[in-house]
Specification:
The protein is of the alpha/beta class. The protein has a single domain, classed as Vaccinia Virus protein VP39 (Rossmann fold), CATH 3.40.50. It contains eight helices and nine strands. The strands form two sheets. It has a seven-stranded mixed sheet with strand order 3-2-1-4-5-9-8, sandwiched between helices. It has a two-stranded antiparallel ribbon with strand order 6-7. A hairpin with a 7-residue loop joins strand 6 and strand 7. The structure holds S-adenosylmethionine. The site of S-adenosylmethionine has 22 residues, from helix 1.
Length: 270
């Protein structure tokens, strides 16, 4: 490998761009154990997190095969999906590049023989043994197309045949690229469902499903209703499991054109 090696140069550029994103997280940290980005009500964030874990459980129950072992959460944050992974995988590897977040992750998730935490960028992570699941939540929407294609290419080399790649990301139709208000020089990429289907097909993956990760619940997200609930001291009801079950059953999971939707995208390595 020489300094003129185009692939090495591409990798270095990719790592530099990924580091710039991670520097932001390292500086700002995550909002709460339930949400990395939501500045909304913490009780609402808790409700969303419970529902997202339920939806992820359904996605995994649908697509995992028997004898699943190794799962890697890329950009694990504080590891909010760990309880769900534990129901399906015997070894959970949590990868978190931001040092400050990693230190807290290690304390929160009791890393032991079955759960390991590493402080590394995915792009330079060396444990490339056969994984049954690669998962990333809230990471990829900050990646441009070149970074994304390298990410998916590396994921394909790390999964065993038939292994799953599940991304919790955001989609919009038509697609949107918006200047990031927090990563300097960065952009948020909201890609279309069709983009993901085409990407899967072009990268040795079979596209399995796309599903909203949490319901719209437009009424509950209304700031006025939230402030009324708070005044009546009823806001903490949003943390109740019965409310989460009702939200999941009654909320709208439809993908409406034009909006930006949080989704789980599931694909399988062919
Ligand atoms: C939006 S937060 C999401 C955290 C968690 N996955 C969740 O859903 O709550 C993104 C996290 O991914 C980490 N991250 C971003 N890019 C990464 C990369 N290339 N390698 C490892 N970690 C990364 C950030 O440091 C941050 O903690």
């Amino acid at each position: 490998m020489t300094s003129n090696d185009p692939d090495a140069i591409g990798t270095a550029v990719h790592e530099r761009k990924a580091s710039r994103i991670v520097n932001y997280w390292n500086r700002e940290l995550l909002c709460s154990l339930d949400s990395s980005t939501s500045h909304a009500d913490p009780d609402l964030a808790c409700l969303d997190n419970v529902v997202e874990n339920c939806v992820l459980r359904e996605v995994l129950a649908r697509w995992t095969t028997e004898n699943c072992q190794r799962c890697l959460d890329i950009g694990a944050g504080y590891g909010r999906f760990v309880p769900t992974f534990r129901q399906f995988y015997s070894q959970i590897i949590l990868l978190e590049a931001a040092e400050q977040i990693y230190e807290r992750l290690r304390m929160l998730r009791q890393c032991d023989g079955n759960t390991k935490c590493y402080n590394s960028l995915f792009e330079s992570f060396k444990d490339e043994r056969e994984y049954d699941l690669l998962f990333a939540s809230g990471v990829i929407y900050l990646y441009d197309d070149d970074m994304l294609s390298r990410f998916v290419g590396k994921a394909a080399t790390m999964l065993r045949r038939g292994g799953l790649l599940i991304l919790r990301d955001f989609v919009a139709d038509p697609s949107r690229i918006i200047q990031s208000s927090y990563v300097q020089g960065g952009h948020c990429h909201y890609r279309t469902p069709q983009f993901w289907r085409d990407l899967a097909r072009a990268s040795r993956f079979e596209f399995l499903e796309i599903r909203r990760s949490k319901p719209r619940l437009a009424l509950v997200r209304n700031p006025r209703l939230l402030s009324v609930l708070r005044r009546l001291r009823m806001i903490q009801w949003l943390r109740h499991s019965v409310v989460a079950a009702a939200a999941q059953r009654a909320g709208s999971f439809r993908l409406h054109g034009g909006h930006i939707h949080p989704v789980f995208l599931a694909m399988r390595l062919s």
